[in-house]
Design brief:
It is a single chain. The protein is built from 8 helices and 10 strands. Residues about 220-230 have low confidence and may be disordered. The chain has 2 domains: about 5-95 and about 185-220, ATPase, nucleotide binding domain (Nucleotidyltransferase, domain 5); about 95-180, ATPase, nucleotide binding domain (Nucleotidyltransferase, domain 5). The protein has helices spanning about 35-50, 70-85, 95-100, 145-155, 165, 170-175, 190-200, 220-230, and strands at about 5, 15-20, 20-30, 60-65, 90-95, 110-115, 120-130, 130-145, 160, 180.
């Protein structure tokens, strides 16, 4: 089965196609925040590079967040539209999983950290297991000092990755001695790999069943709540 992967939950736009032979075509760009403008041409590009027609795709894999609200909505909307048009299933995978998976060979606790803006970050913790990683703490959103407190509570060697780790690296290391490393953005290649494994187990859903992982209310909703609370 050929899988089309779409990753737009952070500043990066990523599209890839792959299957049992691995990833066969990839497009990634991380400059600017023009997800809606870039995504459709990117899908056309990877199909051309793989010498495939879009109707040869058997499943769509999508990064469901947490991450940037606009980017997530663009990617999920595109994934749903393609799945409905092609009458194929969808597999949703967390951006935190995608950041942790490339680090699966380390013995340290893997801590993907995504910039949530407004001085906050999204994070979770993972450990190495045979063939991949396992989440050991649930996805969380909060200020950097709460992440540091979480690291102190576990008191284990840690590897922090993601754009949140890159942005707040000095604050994290000052509070808890750990390594800050790549990747900075979720990998669309990892998305296709993880989705293929799930597809073999038929762990997919219909397009209308895909739900984003927000962890906090969208900014517009927060702003309206604040406005309504004023006398």
């Amino acid at each position: 089965m050929l899988i089309l992967g779409i990753e737009t939950a952070t500043q990066q736009v990523g599209v890839a196609i792959g299957g049992h032979e691995g990833v066969i075509a990839t497009f990634e760009v991380a400059r600017g925040r023009r997800h809606a403008e870039i995504l459709t041409p990117a899908i056309d590009f990877v199909c051309a590079q793989a010498d495939l027609d879009i109707d040869e795709i058997g499943c769509v894999a999508i990064d469901v967040g947490p991450g940037l609200f606009t980017g997530m909505r663009v990617g999920i909307a595109a994934a749903k539209a393609l799945a409905l048009a092609l009458r194929i299933p969808v597999i949703g995978i967390s951006s935190l999983d995608l950041l942790a998976f490339p680090c699966r060979h380390t013995d340290r606790v893997i801590v993907p950290v995504i910039d949530a803006r407004k001085g906050e970050v999204f994070w979770a913790m993972y450990r190495q297991v045979p063939g991949g990683v396992q989440q050991v703490t649930p996805p969380t959103v909060g200020p950097v000092d709460e992440l540091v407190a979480d690291l102190l509570a576990r008191s284990q060697e840690a590897l922090c990755v993601g754009d949140g780790a890159a942005r707040y690296g000095e604050e994290i290391v000052e509070g808890y001695r750990c390594e800050i490393s790549a990747p900075v953005h979720p990998s669309v290649g990892a998305l296709v790999q993880l989705a293929h494994a799930r597809a073999l187990r038929e762990e997919w859903v219909r397009a209308d069943e895909i739900e984003p992982i927000y962890l906090r209310a969208p900014d517009a909703q927060i702003n309206w709540a604040v406005r309504e609370s004023r006398p």
